[in-house]
Amino acid sequence: MMMGKPHWHVLGAGAIGCLYAQALQRSGCRATLVMRSGTPAHPVSVIVQEDDRRLEQQLPTITPESDAAISHLLVTTKAYDVRAAVAGVAHLLADRCAVLLLVNGLGLAEQLLQDRPGLDVYCGTTTEGAYTIAAHHIRHAGRGETRIGQAGLATPPGWFAQWQRAITPCVWDPQIADALWSKLAVNCVINPLTALHRCRNGELASRSVLAREVDTLCDEVARVSRAAGYAAIADSLPATVSAVIAGTADNRSSMLQDVESGRPTEIDYITGHLLKVAAQHHIAAPHSQSLMERIKHRAT
Ligand code: KPL
Question: Which ligand 1 atom is at minimum distance from the Cα of 256?
Answer without folding.
Answer: 4
